[in-house]
Amino acid sequence: MTSLLAAACDVLGLLPLDCLEPRFMRQALLALLLLTPMTSMLGVQVTLYRMAFFSDAVGHSAFAGVALGLLLGAPPDAAMLVFGVLVGLAVMAVQRTSGLSADTAIGIIFSAVVAFGLAVVSRASGLGRQMGQFLYGDILTVGDGEIAALACLLLLLLLFEIAGWNRLLAMALSPVTARVQGIHTAFWHYLFAGLLALVVMFSVRAVGVLLMTALLVVPAATARNLARSAGGMFWWSLAVGVSSGAAGLLLSAQDWLATASGATVVLVACAWFAVSCCVRARRGARRG
């Protein structure tokens, strides 16, 4: 795996772009090329399930997970991942067992997670200063281990989408009908929540807690404006997410711009969304 990733970085170095000469820039681009397809694919389902708030709840759990890891002397990244997955599964469990709406269940977990994170940080003086990178993200500091983890997670997610796309679509349209058709909705819901939580945690590493939801929602919302079918929405979201990640990183490295990479990625995605709104409005005018 390490040799394959090193070869991929070398291939990216062949691009005629001065900003890709430093290895850390090639690693950052490779990480985004692995991460943005995952956020784009899951973003379609997040949009269909109306679970945009879910990513906020899980994303803010990164803050609490890292704080708890630092306080207990555990590796912060590992603590963040484990805590985030547990929060994602807890949200799904509350939603399925309490009879509450998705927004209500997520709101309860979100409040508990944020309060817990603040309580943990308040117990250790100086801990808050170490949390800035998780609020704003920094894809330029990604390492070989994280890139390898992203590659494995992308492979796992591709298998999940191949096996579960039709099932998840049926569940989004009508959970009752899906159960009648023999779909094990609980299994797919929990598996979806766990994978989404993992992807959200890596998104926090790239763009921070404050912007992480945009990686999921904006490409999918753009695709909804451009596509004419669920399948088309999937491919449009993928195209918008990947192009936004690559273009945002490369633009942020230009001397005439010199902006934060995570913020620039999100701004490019939002520019895509603005274009899609114009396209949709033009289509509506033609039909009228």
Summarize the structure.
The protein has twelve helices and no strands. The protein is mostly helical.
Describe this entry's structure for a reader.
With 288 residues, this protein is an all-alpha fold. The chain has twelve helices and no strands. Helix 3 (52-72) packs parallel to helix 5 (102-123) and helix 3 runs antiparallel to helix 10 (212-226). The longest helix has 30 residues, at 144-173. The protein is globular, with a radius of gyration of 19 Å. The N and C termini lie far apart (54 Å). The mean pLDDT is 84.
Helix-strand blueprint:
Blueprint: H1 2-12, H2 23-48, H3 52-72, H4 76-98, H5 102-123, H6 132-136, H7 144-173, H8 175-180, H9 185-207, H10 212-226, H11 230-252, H12 261-287
Number of helices: 12
Which of globular, elongated, flat, extended, rod-shaped describes the shape? globular
Structural class designation: mainly alpha
The N- and C-terminal alpha carbons lie at a distance of 54 Å
Strand content: under 5%
User: Which value, in Å, is the CA radius of gyration?
Assistant: 19 Å
Low-confidence stretches: none
Q: Can you count the beta strands? A: 0
Helix content: over 70%
Report on the biggest sheet.
Answer: none
Order of helices and strands: HHHHHHHHHHHH
Q: What is the typical, i.e. mean, pLDDT?
A: 84
